[in-house]
Amino acid sequence: MRTASRLNCMRLPITVSLFAALAFSQDRSVPLYRITVVQRALKAVNYQRRAGPTLVDMRGTVLLPKAEGQVKVEVKNGYTEVDATFKRVEPPTQFGTEFLTYILWAITPDGRPINLGELIPDGSNKGKMRVTCPNSTFGLLVTAEPYFSVPYPSDVVVMENIIRPDTIGRVEDIEAKYELLPRGQYTLNIKPQDLPSARMAPPPGVSMPVYEATLELYQARNAVQIARADGAEQYAWDTFAKAQQFLNQAEITFASKTDFNGATSIARQAVQAAADARSIAMRKKGGPR
To answer: pTM score, two decimals?
Structure first.
């Protein structure tokens, strides 16, 4: 019977949002959150190669306390496989109209975030992911985001990894840099009412292709709006124009109701192009990306 070796639990600095208050606008349709940000430590494991698969748990923060998950991690030749299951993952729009999806992140000992992929819960608030990570030492967390291709996690951290008694790891003396991850910049220039798509929800009982296409289309609208608000139309007009073109094409394809998979693919291209345009614009302006 295999016994768990000692763990390399490094304290990685992240930020977690705590609700200070929840209020509603006069028409009671747009939630307004006042969020207090506090520092929090995340435990990371140096997963041992040739040790076989091992498990870590995911636990909800105060923002999503009922959420939980289990992650099987295995170091292979040149990469680490991450196989995760989640449950009780409620819709992200409860944290603000701009938040349309969840992202699973690996955080390295030096505080570098790696976007592992999008967590899309089904109608029962359950989700599965099977992704790879180039590193073998990291902590895991889940954040709410406006679209899938964000380069940094927002401060809306909803789940983080919890080390199990039987988690297999190896001790290494690695000093983590004490740096806070960049906080989300997505709502600084955008009012909630400027994102009408975020207040919508896919109709109940629809097929998964329709649901995914709807979600990706909302994210594409968000990404283009955010890029425009951050000056992409002025500072990265060619890339922004490409994003707008992809979005228009996705809207037409979705409206035809004949190729929802195609609409999903085009919408994701729009998101990526909009994210690139925003990054270019922010770099030229000297702001956060």
So the answer is: 0.71
